[in-house]
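Workshop exercise sheet. Pairs work together: one partner reads the sequence aloud, the other fills in the structure field after running the prediction. Swap roles for the next sheet.
Pair: D.N. / O.F.
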Amino acid sequence: MSRIVILCVVVLVYFLIEYYVFQVVQLLTVKSTPLITRWVWSSYWLWVVLMITGFALYTQLDAKTYAGLRVFISALFFINLIGKLFASLVLLGDDVRRLVSYLSQFVISNEDPQIAGRTAFIGKAALLTGVLPMMGLSFGILSGAHDYRVRRRDVYSPHLPKAFDGIRLVQISDIHTGSFFNKTAVRGGVDLINQERGDMILFTGDFVNNQSDEAKPYLNLFAKVKAPLGVHAVMGNHDYGDYHRWDSMTEKQQNIKDLHQMYRYMGWNIMLNENKIITADGESIALLGLENWGAGRFSKYGDMSKTYEGTQEIPYKILMSHDPSHWDAQVLSEYPDIDLMLAGHTHGMQFGVEIGDFRWSPSQYVYKQWADLYQKGTQSLYVNRGFGFLGYPGRIGILPEITVLTLKRSTS
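Structure field:
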């Protein structure tokens, strides 16, 4: 199916939703003067035209040149659509009620059945139901997108050498530079990372959305991220450009090479199915960096046997693997001596509720491990909620995260 056909279908469906919701406008202006009614109705349909035009423009804009404008258009369209869908649910519920009433009259009454009209109450309820999620989504963009939170956890293991007891790891994940629209706010997040003064900084993938060029405006900013034992990174599923249409495989491979070079420019050690032995006071731990490996439909560029090779005798191993599904799918069953795995990927779906120890997000219905610390025996997994965002340019409840993990030696 061509892009033009898809565009036409989307526009048609969107128009039908808008026409359905227009009944709310009609209900709420029924007692208004003709002048006010014409003004309100005209404003409504002008807005609809602007939304459709914006959507059509979005599909034509170059992602590199107009990244910021595309984010603005997509956010506005998404917020408007969600609000209208919620309002439609109220109208749909009322339509079901009216249909049931009509059928009841048809079956029970001897008189000709009449379809009940909508009430002003339904119009107001639909308006309120549509406005509330729009306000919430707008707040998630203006406030939640860059409301960075530092989360601290202690991770215990009997395998941790004494020389590394108390080492502090700072984990960041899912930066998604292609989604950013506020460089000043991002700079604040980078400052928070450095303020934690971690011994080692570990980035668990998705530096870009699709193309390496997205990262160019932010390279010098993230190059400021430093740690005594280095900044180490792995590739996430978005870093390979699998969701972008390339003119050739050669172009796609060059994009990946360009991204690797950008990591080196920043002074970050990009780990491609390899490991690094870190030694202190005659004792060692191993850092393993796996390319993306996800269960199900996600890419499996990772080669765990290659990544693991040479670390067999190291008592404590840290694995960076972008997708948390890898923990259940392979790590627990085949590599019981991986003490700590660090992942990201889920973003906590950028929506949910976290109050004390209570956590809920739609993400939990997709991923068994979707945020925070999980343990099984002596093995631990930490899933970072992500530094950036993708799609919806904001966060509600599940805020951007900088993780500080303190490794501690336990006796059992």
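Discussion prompt: Residues 68 and 181 are 6 Å apart (CA to CA). What would you look at next?
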